[in-house]
Amino acid sequence: MAYYFEQYQRLKFEVFAVDASGEISEEDLITLQINGTDLDKKDFLGKSDPYLEIMRKDENDEYVCAYQTEVIKNTLNPKWDAFIISAYDLCEGDYSRPIKISCYDWNRDGNPDYIGECMVSVDELKRASASTTTLQLINEKKKNKKKKYKNSGELHVVQCEIEPQPIFVDYIKNGTQINCTVGVDFTASNGNPRHPSSLHYNDPDDLNVYQRAIVAVGAICQDYDTDKMFPALGFGAKLSSGVISHDFFLNGSSDDPNCDGIEGVLEAYKQSLSNVQLYGNVKIFKSGPTNFAPIISHVSKQAQQADENPGSSLCFSYQILLMVTDGIISDMDETKLAVIKASGLPMSIIIVGVGDTDFDEMDELDSDEQLLSFEGNTAERDIVQFVEFQKFLEDGQITHSSAINLAREVLAEVPRQILEYMRLKNVAPNKSN
């Protein structure tokens, strides 16, 4: 195990540095109000029904809609309502990043007429709001056709106010604790741990994919955890008693699943490989049921205790459940209901898929586009992040750099999920610390 510990210590510093460097002002709230004057006439009676579409530039240099104003009917001098938008949604926290503001004339048939656009940044919007500077709406087609073309109207920034919001680090510095529980898939589809082809292969000289996933994520969580104790559970195994379990303790204890740091989790994991039987058809290693709901419910009970009296962030506990699996979820309906129930609790779920299974169903749980719903129940917020480990291989190998990239990806949403919960419950950073 000495090699494991050496790898852990090396990885810990670099992953933590990646996480800490991600703190920017993307959580600030921006109040923006814009008026227009002398817009182009698009309607038959010499007026227009204008609205604005505000688009941010993403990491792929493509523009995506961040906000659309209401339509103001029959006017060339609209006064749109003020609106509040997060800095992340408007510019991903970069106040110098280009923003495209396009103006359209609304039509009943759903095909708007283009009026013009301008490029601007939040910094420029802020300066414009404090001066008489106007933004020129330009229609390139008209500009190329008319020599005397000036613009297709002007925009006046009436208000651009930035209200700083607490960020993830504010809560961590002032008492919030991150408690990470590890869940490991022991179904037979992982392969015989004695064979090198197995995802659970017990190699004395290297980390297998389960161990690397645990180290990459746990290295960050451990730095935020005061007692450095990690509950570690397994699912999909046949215990020595003959019982099929979906939430047994890796350390063999009957009443305490805690392991001493990441090193303790790795030790307990290795011990379990010797003490339990991967469940399923052992001869062909066909998987038994891969049930997620029992472990999610187990961790939810811990989160419930903190949720009942959040108060302030002082000594507040937030639960992260790391699930490492090679299979498709068997109890998907029960898992959806468990996730929806947990969405109102101080809890996030990270699912790392290992192996070459088709993980398409996981995207439904990782509900980035819309909140998870099932049988008339809707999640209060998105708490699931799914990452496919295969995508982080380099030339087919799990390298140190791919472990760094994995950690960055799986923890990308956790700070935001924590902030969403704090705001949902009106939990402020405790400034007395």
Question: Can I get a quick summary?
Answer:
By secondary structure, the protein is α+β, with helices and mostly antiparallel strands.
Structure description:
The chain has helices at residues 2-20, 87-91, 122-129, 140-145, 168-173, 209-224, 261-275, 293-307, 332-342, 362-365, 400-410, 414-424, and strands at residues 29-37, 50-57, 63-68, 83-86, 99-105, 113-120, 134-136, 154-163, 177-185, 229-235, 237-238, 244-245, 248-249, 258-260, 277-278, 280-281, 286-287, 317-325, 347-353, 373-374, 377-378, 384-388. It is α+β, with helices and mostly antiparallel strands and 433 residues long. It folds into 2 domains: 2-23 and 168-424, von Willebrand factor, type A domain (Rossmann fold); 25-163, C2 domain (Immunoglobulin-like), CATH 2.60.40.150. Strands 9, 10, 13, 14, 18, 19 and 22 form a 7-stranded mixed β-sheet that branches. A hairpin with a 4-residue loop joins strand 16 (280-281) and strand 17 (286-287). Helix 1 crosses helix 11 (400-410), helix 6 packs antiparallel against helix 7 and helix 6 packs across helix 11. It is elongated, with a radius of gyration of 26 Å. Residues 12-24 and 282-286 have low confidence and may be disordered.
